[in-house]
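Q: what sequence does this backbone want?
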């Protein structure tokens, strides 16, 4: 019997045996090699849910993952033992939003790793063949896992539509923010002003090409002589993230909100937003972005490896959740290896 990490409720993550149910038609079994600990997984751990997606029974998280095929997948020309990534989002394909090209907004979605659907923080999982993503043979498990969060960053930048050489404020330099930073640079954005309260995240933003880094939105206001930026992308877990994005925005500017606030609530003084006449978009998951994510990694236009600061085995996963919840110094991104931690660097 496999083992898995279960979240029972707020700040309660435990390892236990996992009864792997037989997959349905058009599914394939994977040996899960690596799983990313995502900010949404952390919300399930800290808050017991995200909005209406509440943990009603012990639940296995994990939607950023890669695995080795346990059998051939003839429709995709893939052989047993091959490394693949997985798109966790299975939209219905026939609702209004799917037909309009927005499968990330499908209200009938089956999403691996969101309650009530167990995720991949376990040793094996069945996934629909339609959600298997082939990756180049040169990819490591780490690179395959990081395609999913990179896809979220690509979708956010798609929504933002940065203009050539346009100045951008980036509020939040966690894993998604740092990926957005790199995608913005690849998209031709201009000066990028990045802020985060944690020193090691600011250092990483500077390393990855931010033009200025600071502690808070007040730094952005000072750098722009209180004018703000025409484009702001927010990627925090703070209830003040929306407010800070507004304060960083120029009159008539655009904001894309990517982060999920702790407690599922924003704090926002209305006048600051109204008087700027801002255009505001909310990002949810992603669309059809995996081909671009693969190309960005394969061509070294985005560095996903540097963001992974911690690599642990399944036994260490509960402590990894605790460390993230406590904002442990130096932690940016953790990968969990259910089959055993690699010797070094996520490479096998």
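A:
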């Amino acid at each position: 019997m496999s083992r898995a990490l279960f979240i029972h409720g707020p700040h309660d993550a435990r390892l236990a045996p996992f009864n792997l149910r037989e997959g349905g038609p058009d599914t394939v079994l994977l040996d899960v090699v690596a799983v990313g600990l995502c900010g949404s997984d952390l919300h399930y751990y800290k808050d017991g849910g995200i909005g209406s997606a509440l943990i009603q029974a012990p639940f296995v998280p994990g939607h950023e993952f890669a695995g080795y095929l346990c059998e051939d997948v003839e429709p995709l020309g893939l052989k047993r033992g091959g490394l693949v990534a997985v798109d966790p989002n299975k939209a219905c394909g026939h609702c209004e939003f799917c037909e309009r090209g927005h499968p990330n907004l499908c209200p009938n979605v089956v999403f691996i790793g969101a309650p009530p659907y167990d995720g991949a923080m376990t040793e094996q999982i069945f996934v629909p063949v339609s959600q298997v993503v082939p990756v180049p043979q040169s990819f490591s498990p780490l690179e395959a896992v990081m395609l999913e969060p990179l896809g979220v960053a690509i979708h956010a930048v798609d929504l933002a539509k940065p203009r050539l050489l346009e100045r951008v404020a980036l509020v939040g330099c966690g894993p998604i923010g740092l990926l957005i930073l790199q995608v913005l640079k690849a998209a031709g954005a201009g000066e990028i002003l990045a802020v985060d309260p944690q020193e090691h995240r600011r250092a990483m933003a500077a390393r990855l090409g931010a033009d200025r880094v600071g502690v808070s939105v007040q730094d952005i206001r000072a750098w722009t002589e209180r004018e703000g930026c025409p484009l702001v992308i927010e990627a925090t877990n703070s209830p003040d993230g929306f407010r800070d994005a507004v304060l960083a925005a120029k009159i008539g500017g655009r904001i894309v909100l990517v982060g999920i606030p702790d407690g599922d609530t924003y704090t926002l003084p209305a006048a600051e937003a109204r008087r700027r006449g801002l255009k505001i978009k909310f990002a949810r998951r992603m669309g059809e972005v995996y081909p671009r994510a693969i190309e960005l990694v394969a061509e070294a236009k985005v560095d996903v490896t540097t963001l992974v600061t911690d690599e642990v085995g399944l036994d260490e996963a509960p402590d990894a959740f605790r460390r993230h919840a406590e904002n442990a110094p130096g932690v940016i991104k953790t990968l969990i290896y259910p089959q055993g931690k690699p010797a070094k660097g996520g490479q096998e």
